[in-house]
Amino acid sequence: MNISTVWYMLRCFQAVFIVVCRCQNTIIGGPFLRGVSGGERKRVCMGQEILIDPSLLFLDEPTSGLDSSTALRIVHIMKKISQVGRTVVTTIHQPSSRIYHMFDKLILLSEGQLLYYGKASHAMNYFSSIGFSPQIAMNPADFLLDLASGNVVDMSTPIQLLGQCADYNGARGLHSIDVGSKKNHSNSLQPKYVNQYLSRAYKDMLSKNDALQDEDMGVRTISPYSDTARTSWKASGWKNKSDREWSSTWWCQFCVLYMRGFRERRHEYMSWLRIFQVLASAFIIGCLWWQSNFRTERHLIDQVGLLFFIATFWGFFPLFTALFTFPLERAILAKERACDMYRLSSYFMARTLGDIPLDFCLPLFFHIIVYFMAHLRPSISAFFLTFFTILLSTTASQGMGIAIGALMMDLKKATTLASIVLLTFMLSGGFFVQSIPSFIAWIRYISYNYHTFRLLATVQYGHGSQYFNCDTSTGCQKVEEASIFHNISLEGGGTEVLVLLSMIIGYRLIAYVALRRMSLAI
């Protein structure tokens, strides 16, 4: 194994070690599916970040809600990561003394003001040098948090601070503090006076010492906001977003995202509720059009109505399913994209192609039930061509839903727009209105319902001599001569296939461009 393989396996081991071993085969879950606990979910997120090998790992209170032993293990792994050339920045909540002494550097803030920035091991010495030191044995982290909140109980305070408070209170005509009894009056200090004093003391120290490190206490004296710091960041090899290097190939990202999406959505797509919905609809449709035929024109119109309903059903059902795809995943997509976990193109292709196998099953069940119960054209080629047409309609309507969801990114707006578009496509589909006014006739050509309906009619009644009204005195008539097909050609079908394929690709390109323009802000 080469070095990169060994390093990747080490990252995987660290990521797995963070997650509790007994939960390694447990579903993470979500709002509607129970999974791991909050602490386990947090560790899963950390392991996920470690796998992409970031140069900067930023963690917001990673030990909150964890017991002391687990929190110590988490910080120990963070320490190991920092020792191999990675920077780990974290906020911490009530760390134990053992955890505190594992940190290299410390930034102490109070209401946005910088109180200390330097080595964590030298923080106590620094505050002791300006007059703040604990009077009882206490955790350094507790001492620093008390200082940041302005609570100076059980700690010594500088005489200058008490004097300033006394002068301020005297100027306002209030009872002044006896400077000589500072031990008894530490509780009288308001937090804002303590914070102002600490912030001013740190700024004074910075102004007096412009060197990189204080010789006595080892305090880093370069402000993180200074020109020197910005210069060092640029010199350290910081790269623009356009010049970034990915930790894995496009194909690797695609495969991982494809499997993740497939495993996540298979429970939703193949749930018993959805299966029952489709099968029940198919059974009801089969009963209503039971053993249909086209002996007369009235029967022919009924069967054509079935074809139009199939085109409509698989025009709205996948659309509203896909409509929620990107609005619901916007938060996690923005978060993972901001961390440069993967390329947007690999995510989009995995998300798009991952739905195709799942969308293949339900239309197949529906088609088998309806086709034989309704007694449609008894031909093997017609059976498979009808199913192929349903798949084209399903994929096209799904693309429309993805595009609308990506453009709107708001469920209410997306649902409203999708309802209007779907109603327009259905009315112009060629069944309800045969003669559309010329000024709006163009709208039928952008309706996938129209092309699906024409293709279904061509498969069922075209490419062969079929007749109806054979029992009448006028004799048999060709199906093409029926009044319902006056504006619908039953020849060809290749044009409709090309148009539907163009819609499948075009809608997804629109969705991809919309995602590219999406802000990464959550």
TrEMBL record:
The keyword Cytoplasm does not apply. It comes from the Eukaryota. It is found in: Membrane. Its main location: membrane. Pfam families: ABC2_membrane. It is a multi-pass membrane protein. The keyword Membrane applies. Residues 1-23 form the signal peptide. GO terms for cellular component: plasma membrane. Residues 253-461 form the ABC-2 type transporter transmembrane domain. InterPro entries: ABC2_TM, ABCG_transporters, P-loop_NTPase. Keywords: Chloroplast, Membrane, Plastid, Signal, Transmembrane, Transmembrane helix, Transport. This is ABC-2 type transporter transmembrane domain-containing protein. It comes from Ceratopteris richardii (Triangle waterfern). The lineage of its organism: Eukaryota, Viridiplantae, Streptophyta, Embryophyta, Tracheophyta.
